[in-house]
Design goal:
Elements (H helix, E strand, L loop, with lengths): L6 E9 L3 H11 L3 E2 L10 E2 L6 H18 L15 H42 L13 E7 L1 H10 L3 E9 L2 E8 L8 H5 L5 E3 L9 H52 L5 E2 L3 E9 L3 H12 L3 E8 L16 E2 L5 E2 L5 H13 L33 H5 L12 H16 L2 H17 L3 H24 L1 E2 L2 E2 L21 H31 L3 H22 L20 H6 L6 H39 L3 H21 E4 L5 E3 L8 E2 L2 E2 L5 E4 L8 H42 L19 H8 L6
Antiparallel strand pairs: 1-9, 1-10, 2-9, 3-8, 4-6, 4-7, 5-6, 8-9, 11-12, 13-14, 15-16, 15-19, 17-18
Helix pairs in contact: 1-6, 1-7, 2-3, 2-6, 3-6, 10-12, 10-17, 10-18, 11-12, 13-14, 13-17, 14-16, 17-18
């Protein structure tokens, strides 16, 4: 499962006469990831699009523009075929939609103009003055706007060019009528006087009607325009209902036609011949040959140029690990003088003659790397999204998807560990899966469901549901509930989870280093030893020594030793690895560090503390999130319920009701409340009712906050451990995703998306 699907490179050679048929059949197969010809063969150039490509492209652009105008989506389609007169029908639809679009644009422009005019006249309606009275004077200046009346009047009083003035107000609107002095200039004296005053001027509309009548007329015009727009929208909606499926089917057909017509751009072509190369899944080769033979018989030569190895390799005649074929899919060994044969064969192919069997004997025209098809179990497939968020794996790399599937939900559930939150996470994931149509959206939903399931599992073991112990509310009979403890009030458990996080980190990092060792081993044993085995020895040797009895007196008491303080001894009876094992581990650490120094130099020496020790300690963030989220839920419940503290120092929530009369062997009456929660607050029915409402709000919104922070804390922290600590040990990425030449119909795509993780 850790390897991508094995790929074969195939070549199809034939005369140009059969090229359209070959392209059509390959497109129908939706199987071949075409390689791009780089122009390196003498006498061969990149092909030209098949006749009609430009016309099909133009029609495709037109159809997509019409779909945009109608706001069509894939949900509006229906299976079927298009009639022979589809072009005339398309032209009729285009003409009508364009007419409606143009008319709608004109109406919207008129509507905007009317709305602006309504906005401009509204202030004058507040004044209650006829608009014809606000203009047309020669002896006085008139100005209307919004501003402070006192500031306006003060400015007019102080103006030398104003002989007299009068102000009229209505709401926030001020009208000013001012008579200039005899020696005033031709400029508007009100404008000059109000310089420096915050005053928003309103132009006076040109009409003899009253403001109210003018607004009423504009409102009527606005309603007429809106009615016209509704009619156009209704007609467009009718076109969408009647012609939407047709447009989507035409788009599908034109997309296929354009793809086929432009395929020769990736081929090597001469005047009379063509060569097409591409990658297919290795186990599909026989199907590929049979399909082409059924379409064109022996008119083409088909070769399996190579079955790509997983180790990195140079592509070309001298580097192929696979073999050429004989046209019927039968392999053959590359000839020793392949290079001397190739020029003659290339020349022969350019003259338009029948291609010779075994052209090039496995020589590759298009030099490229195999595309990648991730090959994972169905439950792990959604987690490919987390890998692709970094980069598609190279063909030569091991795919980490399965390991992310095994670790990410587990660690998430460990860090949150609550049945209530887990149920909500699963519901959120299911909702995302239902709402989103994209593969990425459905993958996110499925990942949420898995994370929620493990959160429920650990919540059951922790005995937690929204931070409440099930055993405290009469549900302690559930098998295995409370087997584990988060460690909020039990120090030994908290320390145990610290050690558990370190152990998880060691396992996780070793998996990454082993994958890296395997990757490097396929390239060079020396690189594998110096770049990966060295770190395996250094990291594991150091922690073997740490968990051994060698120099036990120098180590923390909680770590190793046969004492009550040693957590592993207390929980599991494990005092530590034997002293001799610790010495061997120390020797392995020294040997690994020496290999690092030899292989990576001084820079590697400085990385030893981080790689051998720091990266492992980075996994302590898991226990930090566990305690932090548990503590937040505890705090919410403390505010809601209040709590008692037993003589042993253990805090129990003061639950109302549930028929509970005692906790930890103590009657409630024997204990003094440590904290009075909201449900117990208040003196009297009214205050108690208000307190209970507050308790409900705090409980709901408090736990929603913890729920959301859990996603960011546990989800992002584990992603960081996957991407930084884990991936750094082996993963580079940068591979090319497998994109076969072909087209999945809308009907097929809809059917596939309706099946959750069908593949």
């Amino acid at each position: 499962m850790l390897r991508p699907e094995r790929m074969s490179k195939v070549s199809v050679t034939g005369s140009k006469g059969v090229m359209p048929t070959v392209i059509e059949r390959i497109h129908e197969l939706n199987l071949v990831h075409l390689s791009d010809y780089d122009g390196s063969w003498e006498g061969f150039n990149n092909g030209n699009p098949i006749e009609g490509a430009d016309d099909a492209s133009e029609k495709l652009v037109t159809v997509r523009a019409l779909e945009s105008s109608l706001e069509l989506s894939d949900d509006d389609t229906a299976p079927g075929t298009i009639d022979d007169d589809w072009e005339e029908r398309l032209e009729r639809i285009r003409t009508r939609i364009n007419e409606l679009d143009d008319r709608r644009g004109e109406l919207r422009e008129q509507l905007r103009d009317v709305e602006e005019r309504i906005d401009r006249v509204a202030p004058f309606a507040e004044l209650g003055i006829d608009l014809d009275l606000l203009g047309g004077y020669e002896s006085v200046d008139v100005l209307v706007g919004e501003g402070s009346v006192s500031e306006v009047e003060a400015a007019l009083e102080a103006a030398d060019d104003v002989r007299a003035y009068e102000t009229f107000t209505g709401g926030d609107v001020v009208a000013v009528v001012a008579a200039p002095t005899e020696d005033a200039g031709e400029e508007n004296v009100v404008d000059d006087a109000l310089v420096g005053v915050e005053f928003a001027r309103h132009p006076v509309p040109e009409t003899e009607k009253s403001p109210d009548a003018y607004v009423a007329e504009l409102e009527e015009r606005k309603r007429d325009l809106e009615s016209d727009l509704e009619e156009i929208d209704a007609e467009l909606a009718e076109i969408k209902d009647t012609e939407g499926s047709f447009l989507l089917r035409v788009e599908e057909e034109l997309t296929i036609e354009v793809q086929r017509a432009e395929a020769p751009l990736q081929f090597a072509t001469s005047d009379r011949a063509f060569i097409a190369e591409g990658w297919i899944p290795a186990d599909e080769y026989d199907q590929f040959v049979d399909a082409l033979r059924g379409a064109v018989g022996d008119s083409v030569e088909i070769e399996q140029l190579e079955v790509a190895d997983y180790d990195e390799h140079e592509h070309g005649a001298e580097a192929h690990t696979g073999s050429g074929g004989d046209g019927d899919g039968n392999g053959g060994e590359p000839s020793a003088d392949a290079e001397t044969e190739q020029p003659a064969q290339r020349k022969a192919a350019t003259d338009g003659g029948q291609p010779q069997s075994g052209h090039g004997k496995g020589a590759v025209t298009m030099d490229d790397e195999p595309p990648v098809i991730l090959n994972n179990l169905t439950p792990a497939k959604p987690f490919e999204l987390l890998v692709k968020m970094v980069s598609q794996p190279k063909y030569s790399e091991l795919d980490p998807t399965l390991l992310i599937f095994l670790t990410y939900p587990f660690a998430f559930g460990f860090m949150i560990g609550d049945i209530g939150y887990g149920i909500l996470y699963m519901l959120m994931g299911w909702g995302a899966w239902k709402v989103f149509d994209s593969d990425a959206g459905k993958a996110v939903g499925t990942i949420g469901i898995w994370a929620g399931a493990f959160t429920i599992l650990f919540g059951w073991l922790y005995d937690d549901i929204f931070g409440i112990h099930m055993s405290d509310v009469g549900l302690g009979f559930i098998p295995l509930a409370g087997t584990l403890d988060k460690g909020l009030q039990a120090t030994d458990w908290a320390i145990f989870w610290i050690i558990f996080s370190i152990a998880f980190g060691l396992i996780h990092l070793n998996a990454g280093l082993i994958l890296g060792f395997i990757n490097e081993l396929s390239h060079s044993v020396k690189a594998a030893v110096y770049e990966r085995l060295s770190w395996i020895l250094a990291m594991n040797g150091l922690f073997v020594w740490i968990f051994s009895l060698h120099a036990v007196e120098q180590k923390p008491a909680f770590l190793v030793g046969a004492t009550e303080e040693a957590v592993l001894y207390d929980f599991m009876g494990f005092a530590g690895l034997p002293e001799i094992v610790g010495i061997v581990g120390l020797a392995a650490f020294i040997a690994g560090s020496a290999l690092v120094a030899v292989g990576e130099g001084i820079a590697g020496i400085f990385e030893i503390p981080a790689w051998a020790f720091g990266h492992v300690l980075s996994y302590l963030r898991m226990v930090a999130v566990l305690l932090a989220k548990g503590g937040m839920a505890f705090a919410v419940n403390l505010l809601v319920f209040g709590a008692y503290e037993t003589p042993e120092g253990y805090t129990y929530f003061n639950y109302p009701g549930f028929g509970i009369t005692e906790i930890s062997g103590y009657e409630y009456a024997e204990l003094t409340p440590e904290f009075v929660g909201l449900v117990h607050a208040g003196d009297g029915p009214l205050v108690s009712a208000i307190a209970i409402v507050g308790a409900v709000l705090v409980f709901v919104f408090g736990h929603i906050l913890v729920l959301l922070l859990g996603i960011t804390a546990a989800g992002i922290q584990m992603l960081r451990l996957e991407y930084v600590e884990f991936f750094q040990k082996f993963y580079q990425g940068g591979g090319e995703e497998y994109e076969p030449f072909g087209h999945e119909s809308r009907e097929e795509a809809t059917s596939a998306s309706a099946q959750p993780q069908a593949d």
